[in-house]
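User: Okay, second chain of the day. Same drill as before: sequence in, structure tokens out.
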Amino acid sequence: MNRGIPALLLIGALLLPALAGVAAEPPTPTLEQEVADDTWAWHLPEPVASARTVRLKAVAGPRFRASEDWRERIARRVELTSKQFEADFAICLELGEVEPWDGVDEQGELSAAFHALWTRPDSSDADIIVAFLHTGHMSRTTKERADAESLGRASPFGRHIALRDTPELAAQMKIHTFVHELGHLFGALHSDDQRSLMHRYVTRDGGASFDLLNGERIWRAREFDFRGGVAALTGETVQGLGQLYEAGHRPDEENPVVMAWHNAGVELTVARDFEGALRAYDAALALDPDKATAHLNRGLILRELGRLTEAEAALRQALDCDSGVPGASINLADTLMRLGRVGDAIVEMERQIIRRPKDAPAWHLLGVARAAAGQIEEAIDAYVQAVVFDGSIALRPMLMPGDAATRARLSDEAQARVDAEPESGEARVRLGLLWRLQDQRLAGLTEAARGLELLGDYHGAALLCTSALSEAPDDRGLLHLSARLTLAAGRHDDAIHLFGDLVARDKTDAAAYRGLGDAYKAKGMLSTALKYYQQAQQHEPADE
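Assistant: Same drill. Structure tokens below.
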């Protein structure tokens, strides 16, 4: 890479060896030394005979299309982004199809919109597909500074970019974000240099150039075949990019080629090309043997293919690389259950619960494993903990432990505890689960929902209540519970509607009048609340 050397420095470099009586050539600077050089910015290293043309397809969300000139805005941004890449890398962007994209949630998480774009069917011949979205005001975003991850999303050596506008964003920052994300597609990573276009934060007065290291990355991947994907990278290019990654390694980032192979594995898995996905993960692991999620995903695929022994080995490797990698422990225990090694599954789940005491799915699977091992009371204990930490677990299948007599005894004991401690949410959850395990589903879900209400898990309680109401839509107890949970969730108008329906069914329902009073009080409408409290007292004089 020839960036030019000042004449005086060149003369000095030639004279010093002669004065010292040494005939050796000056050492070639390492890449790390070059990166540390004051000449930090990337420049096109040599004249290029012809620019590479990269074809773009643009899709625009409904909010972005609110202005009549939305197509012109897209064309202008592509033009300005192309100028940057033409000057730095002789890469020209050519805008092809521009079409609406309805159904995307522009105000939700950008990662969700990016995933929707990535999975969106597309038969065009474009190299890259770019989504233009618009959202309302965003925290941590001003006309001076914004986190690039909140404004754009792209994966190394992928072919999708999601860009999001916000009213706070200055015009040049929108172009900066587009350039930044396009850099990611060519393998560029975040830079610590605030002058760089690849710095994590996009600023109004920020970088106008790529840093030297990221410029070299993009240059080496200049001819990348986006439609061919990471498999189209030559061995020489992969080796060169790996050296550049090592030179600029940061603890929070990984080799972009590894990331690309990993993403290819995910994409092939979604397409149910499991053998292709295994090859992709193997390629990622050949470059980074300690990538825990690649081992994990290999294990899941191998389990899906029925290769359980290999799946166990892959999942254990994932845990060896990172004991906290999400999903590895519980999937290992599930694989052990399928292998008939129930005792080993129990040990694995107990180990996971020590690591994460509130891991509800781990408690649930521990209950299933204990039930399979005939550990009846221990299984119930585990099920209760699972539901206490996540109420929705009560809707999952549960292996029914013990014989009828044992379950009846445990139910009687649980009922006695509820009678003694009526405000104990955990006691009611236990009783509800035992009823449910004895085929008293409606009563069990209702009791468990009341328990979750006492524990403050209004979302979980509402899920159980909704499920129970599907079986008994006119049950007044469930209707009251649903209204209370709606109010507790802060949905005041919905709660007023539900309590109003209860009053319409029974004009003497003091609890419904009291619920209306609570709902209007929460809305700040105190005079209306007082009216309903008075009506509650009329129908229940002892009520205060």
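DSSP finds 24 helices and seven strands in the chain.

User: Thanks, on to the next one.
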